[in-house]
Amino acid sequence: FHDHALMIIFLICFLVLYALNLTLTTKLTNTNISDAQEMETVWTILPAIILVLITLPSLRILYMTDEVNDPSLTIKSIGHQWYWTYEYTDYGGLIFNSYMLPPLFLEPGDLRLLDVDNRVVLPIEAPIRMMITSQDVLHSWAVPTLGLKTDAIPGRLNQTTFTATRPGVYYGQCSEICGAN
């Protein structure tokens, strides 16, 4: 795609520089050029065609990289104020809530505002599809270690795919200004 777009940009730059050179170096003897409706039509339609030529390959690549055709696991995540509900849709509707641990219940070594009472367990080296929505207000489902951040919007189902490459605990965190906790 980069090479495709770069060739179009080079062509446009060459044509603009050529027209600018002609304008600066030749004596304009044709005074009827300002009334040329054909030229106005061409310089209106040509940029639209160029934009379509750049857009179509870009959209194709965008959709090809976004979709995992056969994920090993699909999890639905529903944001609520101060907790998340997770549903393993592939395993008979296993549903649980995940609340952030209050500071009084933290064990030594636990991380404040990151540890939860019920963790999501994921396989490693397997493609995982995460469906994310919200029940009440805007939320942001984020796991920085995996490079993920997807907004949870009421009435809309967003999707992200990822693969955990190493075993361990990946902490999600709130990345929105959403209140006291």
UniProtKB/TrEMBL annotation:
GO terms for cellular component: mitochondrial inner membrane. The keyword Metal-binding applies. It is found in: Mitochondrion inner membrane. Residues 70-181 form the Cytochrome oxidase subunit II copper A binding domain. One of its GO terms (molecular function) is copper ion binding. Keywords: Copper, Electron transport, Magnesium, Membrane, Metal-binding, Mitochondrion, Mitochondrion inner membrane, Respiratory chain, Translocase, Transmembrane, Transmembrane helix, Transport. InterPro entries: CcO_II (IPR045187), CcO_II-like_C (IPR002429), CcO_II_C (IPR034210), Cupredoxin (IPR008972), Cyt_c_oxidase_su2_TM_dom (IPR011759), Cyt_c_oxidase_su2_TM_sf (IPR036257). Residues 1-69 form the Cytochrome oxidase subunit II transmembrane region profile domain. It catalyses: 4 Fe(II)-[cytochrome c] + O2 + 8 H(+)(in) = 4 Fe(III)-[cytochrome c] + 2 H2O + 4 H(+)(out). Binds a copper A center. It is a multi-pass membrane protein. The chain crosses the membrane at residues 6-24, 45-63. Its cofactor is Cu cation. One of its GO terms (biological process) is electron transport chain. SUPFAM superfamilies: Cupredoxins (SSF49503), Cytochrome c oxidase subunit II-like, transmembrane region (SSF81464). Its main location: mitochondrion. The keyword Protease does not apply. Component of the cytochrome c oxidase, the last enzyme in the mitochondrial electron transport chain which drives oxidative phosphorylation. The respiratory chain contains 3 multisubunit complexes succinate dehydrogenase (complex II, CII), ubiquinol-cytochrome c oxidoreductase (cytochrome b-c1 complex, complex III, CIII) and cytochrome c oxidase (complex IV, CIV), that cooperate to transfer electrons derived from NADH and succinate to molecular oxygen, creating an electrochemical gradient over the inner membrane that drives transmembrane transport and the ATP synthase. Belongs to the cytochrome c oxidase subunit 2 family. This is Cytochrome c oxidase subunit 2. The gene is cox2.
